[in-house]
Design goal:
Length: 274
């Protein structure tokens, strides 16, 4: 069976464990606007969790708070036993939380290799002394990055390995998305946050990218994935569990089948019946 014919259940040689992230009464206000409103939820070890909700319901804000870009107004996020709120984005990244963004953050003139390695800037030894006077060590570090990037690209799309030193601007949208996911994976995160990976792609491209993400999940045993996605067929295919937001609150959680049957979810998406 190849990846394209596998559905989510057939991938489930994967164990879902206890709580990796616990969110308690999380609130994020922007002036008078409450983007997250006393949110309570948890993310389990090893799961693929889908985050759904109408536009503006707080999904990206949740990622931004969880990765330290925004400081929550109040509440708590415990990740691996430690409070996240108050930590810098660098500290959170180093503790194993990586993400992709809704809009591409690749530098088009730079090569695939450079774009992926930039993501791991925090882990690199880039002091001038090291680069100028420790040439051997510098070379060894560089070579180890080349091997790591090759290995990651191989998981996603082996043809990308041969083009690793070409500028990203010459690649298709789906390859750029693959490159962005590889960049997020370079640090070997425990928790990978994907913000609408299907945005701007065709149906077939989205299917192919989801196959790749499932393959990666199969190969990286301890990886937990949270995925913001509007494409319901993507959610159905790759998530173990879903949480639905509306106005910054969790209004439903469960399997895809459960949340789509939930009247609260239907009302949130379709509006109240007159
Ligand atoms: N930096 C900010 N400053 C002010 N308001 C913000 C900021 N970031 C988000 N918001 C507001 O917070 C609310 C939640 O936005 P958020 O982007 O989290 O929603 P979302 O569920 O990710 O939506 P979408 O599905 O459209 O991406 C929106 O009303 C948005 O305008």
């Amino acid at each position: 069976m190849n990846a394209a014919t596998m559905n989510h259940a057939q991938h489930a040689a994967h164990t879902i464990g206890g709580k990796l992230v616990g969110v308690t009464d999380l609130t994020m206000r922007f002036g008078g606007l409450t983007a997250l409103d006393q949110l309570n939820m948890q993310i389990n070890e090893g799961e693929v969790l889908g985050l759904l909700g109408p536009n503006g319901s707080g999904k990206t804000t949740f990622f931004n708070v969880l990765t330290g870009l925004y400081k929550a107004t109040s509440g708590s996020i415990i990740y691996k036993g430690q409070e996240v709120i108050g930590q810098t984005p660098q500290e959170i990244y180093r503790s194993g939380v990586a993400r992709t963004f809704q809009r591409s953050r690749l530098s088009l003139p730079l090569t695939v290799f450079d774009n992926i390695v930039i993501g791991d800037y925090q882990h690199m030894n880039h002091g001038l002394f090291f680069n100028l006077f420790q040439r051997k060590a510098f070379r060894a570090e560089y070579d180890s990055y080349v091997s790591k990037v090759e290995a990651l690209l191989n998981i996603f799309s082996p043809p990308l390995v041969a083009r690793m030193f070409e500028p990203v601007g010459t690649f298709t949208m789906i390859d750029r998305r693959r490159i962005e996911v590889c960049r997020a994976l370079l640090s070997q995160p425990r928790l990978l946050l994907l913000d609408e990976p299907s945005a701007g792609m065709t149906h077939d491209e989205t299917e192919a990218l989801m196959d790749d993400i499932l393959q990666v999940r199969g190969k990286l045993e301890n990886l937990t994935i949270v995925l913001i996605e509007h494409e319901m067929n993507v959610i159905e295919r790759i998530t173990d569990r879903c949480i639905v937001f509306n106005y910054g609150k969790k209004i439903a959680e469960g399997t895809y089948a459960e949340i789509t049957a939930d009247p609260n979810v239907q009302t949130a998406y379709l509006g109240e019946a007159e």
